[in-house]
Amino acid sequence: MSRIPERVPRLLLLLLAVLVPAGADAQSRRNRTTPGLVLETGARHATCDALIFVDDGKTLLAAGDDKVVRSWPVLEASFDRANRRVLRWPVFRERRGCIHALAVSPDSKRVVVGGLGVKNGYLAILDRETGKLVQGLENIPSAQAVWAVTFSPDGRKVVYGVEDGAIYLWDLDADARKAPAAIRAGERKLNRLRLVTFLDRDSLLAVAQDGEIWKWDISRAGDRGRKLGQLRLPNAYRVVLGPDGKWLAAIGEQSAGGRSADVQRVELYSLADGDRQFLTLPEPKPGERPFPRCIAFDEKGQRLAVGLRILPVQQQVPVEKRFYKEIGGRILVYDLSNRRVSVTLELDYPPEALAFRPGRKNQLASAGGNNHEVRLWDLDKPAAPVADIRGPGNCLWGVGLSKDGRYLGFQETRASNPDSPNQWGAGDWRVFDLKERRLLPRTPEDFKPIRPKETAGGWKVQFTPDANVWNVVSPEGKVYPLDQKSGLYDPRTNNVPRCYSFLDAGDGKPVRLLVGHIFGVSLYELNRDGPRLARVMVGHEDEVMALAPSADQKT
């Protein structure tokens, strides 16, 4: 139940941002040293990018877009909530502080985190016992997001990779003013590093989005590396190395125009001889299209867990309703001795990260769900998790204002298969009285939320096969993609439109279009020359799933 402490303020702030623009003076007074108010829910409330067991399976670490590393002691079959810890690194507003990469030192006393730091390209080393910042990267060689990180076997170096595939070695014993050495230069294109790890004291292995497998000897100054092989899956999304250091497992990501079948499988690649095998997914249930989203080896390399996101079969959906949506999630546990599924776990929403528990042959942790749950599973009893961690609230999937603007309603249940991106919410409405500033014990009988406007002035939205792009169609029928050329804010991250609402023309303004997406909302002005990005409202830690227009449909 972890998003409501963060999602309710998020949606309220969205309304305020549309209706009452923040003063420039107030904005300019904020800087990276200004203290911020942080609501601590005791659980995750945003996407999880890293899930790791440490201390021989006695502790679980989780990190991601909620900007912290959460640490829970794990008992025989439960989480020790009373002794949880939170490790914090420097963060700032908006996306500053989202963690994409996490690694634990060989002695398990420290963690290093990277991602969208308080500065682009920043990394921090934190003490697990005290939570203190032990060391921060001062001389940053590349102002790009960090996507993969690892400690050297002696714990005295950190190697990390960034957005364009560049790889750097940070010597923790060197002068802090000295910038990390470049192991590989970037390529001036998107090529996020997916894996960086040591095979032994001096041998470094790395794989980026392009699927190229490279190895370096860091003991040799200026070593240019050697290409070991190439993954066949397109756009490597997750790559993990087996515990014996001999096999890679990888999943891909479909690109625009690519075939779904190319990424509906898992690739296994042998570092020893280049042998390649594929794990096929079981026959899907009627109406489902499953795609791998996360993977994890067990401690002996005998099993591989594969987390799936379930999409509907597009051919069974009317063209006007073919927007990107997940309708469920699943975890498959493969026995690698015969390449068959031995256990299946059903979830309400796609898992984001997985980790087998060392020392517990049949326990698996997963992160992700309708409310960002972290779950512990007993694979001998797969019907339900044996324990979970949830915050004190629920995610919000629907939001709406009353006609007079007094009430703000919200829905905490996700629709399993909505017909429109403006219908993610399901179930009863809960109502907040904006005049009295209190949550009502029951929904007023006359409460009827104003729904998002799905057309205005002859303009309409058109969905495309590319989940990252919607089109907007003019009254004359001209089609304009809402892509990078039209000014979409940061297409590398704000790249999945989730909801929308038109605003009628008036007060000297043309018809406008609000699009909710990852990390915020984009506002377009629509005129005879097409869409123009007029404003971007960011600051959210996750996806914006609902918008609440006013009754006059102008704000």
Describe the structure.
The structure is a single chain. With 555 residues, this protein is mainly beta. It has a domain at 398-543. The strands form eleven sheets. Strands 1-2-3-4 form a four-stranded antiparallel beta sheet, with no helix packed on it. It is globular. The model is unreliable at 1-29 (pLDDT under 50).
Write a brief caption for the model.
By secondary structure, this protein is mainly beta. It is built from two helices and 41 strands. It has a four-stranded antiparallel beta sheet, with no helix packed on it. A four-stranded antiparallel beta sheet has the order 5-6-7-8, with no helix packed on it.
Based on helices, strands and strand pairing, what is the structural class?
A: mainly beta
Q: Within the largest sheet, what's the order of strands?
A: 1-2-3-4
The radius of gyration over CA amounts to 24 Å
- Main sheet specs: 4 strands, antiparallel
Q: What distance separates the N and C termini?
A: 30 Å
Mean pLDDT: 90
Number of DSSP helical runs:
2
- Which regions have little confidence, pLDDT < 50, spanning 5+ residues? 1-29
What helical percentage do the residues reach? under 10%
How much of the polypeptide forms β-strand, as a percent range?
A: 35-45%
Q: Kindly state the number of beta strands.
A: 41
Given the C-alpha coordinates, what overall shape results? globular
